[in-house]
Amino acid sequence: MEPVHIIGAGLAGSEAAWQIARAGVPVILHEMRPAKGTFAHKTGNCAEMVCSNSFRSDDDMMNAVGQLHWEMRTAGGLIMAMADRHKLPAGGALAVDREAFSAAVTETLQAEPLIRIVPGEITDLPQDGNWIVATGPLTSDALAQAIRAVTGTDALAFFDAIAPIVHADTIDMSVAWEQSRYDKGETEAEQRAYINCPMTREQYEAFIDALLAAEKTEFHEGETAGYFDGCLPIEVMAERGRETLRHGPMKPVGLTNAHKPDEKAYAVVQLRRDNAMGTLYNIVGFQTKMKYGAQTQVFRMIPGLENASFARLGGIHRNSFLNSPTLLDDRMRLRQRPNLRFAGQVTGVEGYVESAAMGLLAGRMAAAQAQGRDLPPPAPTTAMGALVHHITGGAEARTFQPMNVNFGLFPPLDEARSGRKGRKDRYPAYTQRAKDDFSAWLATQ
Fold this sequence. Notes:
It contains 14 helices and 17 strands.
């Protein structure tokens, strides 16, 4: 049997390789790192997480991304299995020790007899064979040019920013306290998964002033800043209005200052554990394009972080993605070159889980093709089906932008199930319908 080739061993490529091998089809996984790196990646490991260590909500009853977690687990997904093995306390979210997670994905793929990982950069799109392109938002210049040559169009681009990471022992816990918002989580560790730094109104106003005045990274000539709203730099949010941050990542609701329980904070900065030892914390929602010197000055204005030491400062990078509604069919194949499937963030989904989910689908579809079968996507009533439907035809091509999974992508519930119910009733109806339909899709394979 001819192998399936995958370009890129990120979350999507790693998941695709695993699904193909589980189906009994050989895989050749091509990865250019570490021989050729990117500015955002630090290792040559598979499934390296470069922006955050969170897979977001793990609630599969009330949250669309939690439902996507459920579907990936039910389909035997490698990414979710390794995330569960290396998870960290994070309230209602699923966060992981990113280094241990990536190492475990790499070791698992290397140990699979049907998977061969081949180092080296692929610079052109093959004319034949069964290929999946899962190169992610940092597709190399040479391959990006090859994609443009085949599609006859420029890939769209937006800018993505990385949040800074702080050494835990440099946080002043006489000012900060441990608590998840609304005390979410079943265990004490989950209920205390975040470190919270409170701000008075005066401190918040001074912080906003410094943030707006700080030196920012300049763009290269010809680049424009088309940010994805789900990952905006904090200074861009602040430019939209002085109150934007305290109604976003710095909102104080659901938190009680353990040191001053009767004093309500005007704003709160949260930090989330970034590794299993609890020695590193990332500043939640604080993606930034400030220059390094400005970052240390501005972030040390946060109460509790006056003497913070940073393991990594924030950064900004360009993410490229296809205008998938015009280029891909519902089997995720490039219409001009059907031997090529695309998967992951390059298709215009946003987020670790969404990217891995598209890798799972592309892998299963490619494996079916290798076995002489055709595998349609799951119903759009499922989280995976809603995503793939959105990127391959459900979205308006003229205004296509990266999208996280959300209930707005799901077909409306029928009147009997929805009625005039609120979210508390509607969301479980969405997720139960999705579970039923996804299980039915799996049963056909």
